[in-house]
Amino acid sequence: MTLVIWTDQAAVGSEPLDDPYYRYIATAPEFQPVKHDRQTLTARWDTWLYMPWRYQWTIGTGDEGGQFCRDFGINGGFTDHGDGPFAWLEKWNLRFYNDHTAGKGYLYLRDANQRSRFQAFQRDPRAIRQDREGLKPLDEALLAKLSALVRERVTRLRQSPMRVAYALDDEISWGIFVVPLPWRVLADDQDYQRWLDHYYGGKGPQAQFVTPDAILPQLKGQLKDIDLSPLLDRITFNDSVWANFLGRLVEVANETDPETPCGFVGGQSPNMWGGYDYAKLMKKIQFIEAYDLGSSQAIIRSLNPQNCIPQVTTHFHSDERGTANDVWQSWYYFAHGNRGMIGWVEGWFDGTKPRPWLYEYRSTLKELGQVQGPKLVGARWIHDGIAIYYSHPSIQVSWCLDSEAHGRTWVNRGNDHRLGTSHLVRKAWEYMLTDSGLQYSFISYDTVVLHGIPEEYRVLILPACYALSDAEAQRIREFCLRGGTVIADFCCGLFDQHGKARTRGALDDLFGVRHDGTERAQDFFGERLWVETDQDAAYNYKSYRELFATIPCQLHKGYAVAEKRLPVLTLRKVGKGTAVYVNLSPQRYLQYREEGTADDRSRLPFVTPIFDAGIRPWIQVTNEGRRPANVETCYWKNRGRIFVFVVQNAPVTGSMFGETGATSLKTRTIPIVVRLNRTVRDVQDERSGANLGDGDRFEFQFPMAEAVFFSFRDDTQ
């Protein structure tokens, strides 16, 4: 059995590079982390916490409300703007986070949920960040104002022994959510020019201020003539200013209260817009609640140093989805590293009387908060030696290519997480791995530039990695040469990190393929767009079949051939390793999964190279002799034991306002057999408390809206 613990380890033998992008990442403040002390971040967050946001908390904050919390297993709470009720929270032993520690209307702009109020700025590249109250650039004046507010509120909050985290604000953005809004975040253009010079390693290009209108005409020509950098460089600058601004506010909170983590809530999908480059964000925060959109939860877990940052998500009850969805969300996200949930209180009470669904939910709250939660405090995620590459420049390029279908109506684009090529490709890879019984972690571009691919990984997946720097390409070659397997699906490295197209792909030599820069849209997928789907025609699609029907594509083994000039499945031995260029898009796996036809055979074009690298599931789950559909195993290491979850990996839907929940959730209980690839000792059923002894085969009843949860002694120490 091979257990690989997520670490902060750099690749053995990786050396500094004489490369401007390397120097930028090594020295830029946006990549310098705030303090991430493991003991501080886990000390008082010592179980799974359910923290209601008291929107319609009609039961009140007296004894009746306190007794309700105790009776229903609610062990957390919240305060707002640094106000109480501190005495009530302490009396009922409710640990809380504080929302709006930096106020409201600054990190989340006024009327941000009313998109029409900002439309006038979407085509004005000279506009400065603002709302109905006036200009709000992310400058020193605003930082001083918010720093004073944070100090004042944290000084009051730190008196409470029940505090566990500070949230600067909710649903924050350098724009509004992740709406395309290419304005300036600073009024001084010289700030941008100085950053550009640093970014390019000397004298950078003259700063430009453009919108997507300026880059869309380029997509009608040849690849070599596309230059997205005038737009993408400035969006990258905005992301950097944003990350540094947040980091400085976190440090202000730390100076005032060194014992309590600080971050934000209402996190969005990774995106070109709004500041959601998680490689930068995760270095600047110590607490986060994020909606599970665009793989955000898995990316956060992967980039969470030592898994010590408290990571939670939001619970929105829906009568339509039913209580099974509430139960499933709680177990699923606990199994994936969440330290609790923030409950949006709407539809909870009839007057002061709890509604029936709460009676159905309370046993889950009690079990996770009182019994299971402490077991994973300080635990480390285990992967199977598989890394999925997190390339934020590729997410930016993907947005630009995807937006061509909209033309000038790009200003109306939303729900990028359910439309965008980068997001759906990434999600398809995740599902193919977990449906194959394998686990993974994301690895970010800055880590690879500085340190290479860590030794703990044997396979690197490059999902829709349109944009790669020379430094990244060199690190990826090094990984392959020393024995790693590198798998790219399509369009790998056709742009550099600025969004400027290359004549040859950054890794063409590694994969043994050739691009020449004369490629046009008709050389990819269908006949008229660079991407697999027309995301304007299927903007409100109801099924993946509807989305993929928008552009007829040549299929190979059920998947769209991405680049018509190249062969499918090019495999090349490189040094001690293997490089595989699939030249297929994995997106249609989402359709097959949705329709219930996904199986081992449908995954083979993508997972065969992983199996050929010697990676196999070390836990097999079967029902009546077959692996149940959409079942995932997760594993953690903590205090001398390995903890294993078997959960249902149901699709999650939601919006930028949250409202997340599972679709097609199965709620029946099925018998399963769990087989391990060796005998393990001292096996405990963590839910029943039963000691199952030693062995390599165990039987459980699996309630599919909950989890099987067992552990065994860690003999790998």
Automatic annotation (TrEMBL):
CDD domains in the record, alphabetically? Answer: A4_beta-galactosidase_middle_domain
Q: What molecular function terms (GO) are annotated for this protein?
A: beta-galactosidase activity
Q: Can you supply a Gene Ontology BP term from the record? A: carbohydrate metabolic process
Top-rank taxon, per record: Bacteria
Signal sequence span is none
Domain Beta-galactosidase trimerisation, first and last residues per copy: 455-587
UniProt cross-references to Pfam families, sorted A to Z:
Glyco_hydro_42M (PF08532)
Protein name per the record:
Beta-galactosidase trimerisation domain-containing protein
Organism expressing this protein natively: Thermogutta terrifontis
